[in-house]
Design brief:
464 residues, alpha/beta, 9 strands, 8% strand
Amino acid sequence: MDKDFLLSTETAQHLYHEHAAKVPIIDYHCHLNPREVAEDHRFRSITELWLGGDHYKWRAMRTNGVDERYITGDASDWEKFQKWAETIQYAFRNPLYHWTHLELRTAFGIDKVLNPDTAREIFDECNEKLKRPEYSARGLMRLYNVESVCTTDDPIDSLEWHAKYAKECPEGTKMLPAWRPDKAMNIHLGKDWIDYINRLSEVSNVTIDSFETLLQALRVRHEYFAQHGCKISDHGIDTFYAEEYTQEEVENIFQKGVRCEQLTEKEVDVFRSAMLYEFAVMDNESGWVQQFHYGPLRNNNTRMFDSIGADTGFDSIGEWSAAIPMSRFMDRLDVEGKLAKTIIYNINPKDNELVATMLGNFQDGSVPGKIQWGSGWWFLDQKDGIEKQLNTLSILGLLSRFVGMLTDSRSFLSYPRHEYFRRILCNLIGQDVENGEIPASEMPRIEQMVEDICYYNAKRYFGI
């Protein structure tokens, strides 16, 4: 993994080193903890920084036969790190192998291969460097030339850490909230949903006793987020919801929900359809970008969910029929002139061409690349998945207008995923140039295309 890792031609090397590598990072969707940024968190060890909350690594460790005590349990930091070192030697061809060594090299200057023999030396060297002030949360963001990050935040969040950071560090990496209102849609969860609605009522100072007042409360919070610099929403959904409904139907479903009455599957989908539409209208009115991450099958392992909760590595690719509801959802908004800039991420690769062709149905000439297909997400954010997304988008859309990569991560060491993406991008384009499929005489335009995908398209698209 030298400086030309993944760059198989001279043109690829030129595009990466002279262009892609030199532009900043706009990480427009991540799950960083805003408090850790605001307080400039110092990490006690490489284990906290590297393995804390990283369900990608956790899944690999479980597959390698590692007991849960060494993953999410009470084992020491060294013991957990040791188990990861034992696992990584079995991870050839898994993206974790590339990411692990990119992170060691770019953050710590360590070129050694991680394995059981080198584990203690690497553990100690990383921990010694983590004592330095430049290895704090903000220091790592500076190291990776991160210009902006957008965290993932619930409508009831106070955004106090965003405000504190913006006041204290106006010249640092920009940290903006992103609106994630999924919990307001979860009427099927009964008492948990009611508890959430009550909390939303408190923070918005709106008495929620109808569907209309629910929307009022959400609009209050939507405006609150806008005042704190929010420009992006994000929705984690099974599939798109676009059932036909009347306001009376939705109100009746809302009242059944607050009474904790049993709802039919159709009623739940009608409620979700109404909510998803209203969220889209709010985003359009505010000039925000709306993002939709659809398709995962979450919390498959009941035993482990009951033991350690959600987002711990027990999710997988799901399968829903998305084409018709996706089309209906966007078509209604388009007909009404309420379709905001939109990014769609699929987790199932079978939907690649579906999403890529859906984009073209709703481009309206008002904004270049108004409807975007998001970069390879979750199980697809690896070399094969990224190449397939780039190739399919190139064939069925305009790759030059793509807004590029994001980390979608909880880790401050995930920024090399941008480097990983940029190297793959430059390698594909470089191969086309050297094969004569893109004319070498157009090199200035090619160079600009690379910089646009890596940085400038996102900067213009989000207005950050």
